Amino acid sequence: MTDWTMAQAKRDFSIGYLTGYGFERFTLGGVASWYVRLSGGSARGSLVDARSKQTREFRSLDAAVRAVEEIGFQVQSLTVGSI
Hints:
Blueprint: H1 6-14, E1 20-28, E2 31-40, E3 43-46, H2 61-71
């Protein structure tokens, strides 16, 4: 498993290595947080804080989407389950 800081994710996206993203919801004590998962080649991992190297938590899905767009991805829609 590979984890990326925002700077590393932007770099890897710009060279075409990062190709996918996903969002994972985590609830603890009734409070929901969102995590960003990234993938490229055979690597899979999380977006992490540059200082602590801990998985970045986003308080809203909107904030997590903004982070993915800051990396360079274009988020046009989100689909949950099958439609």
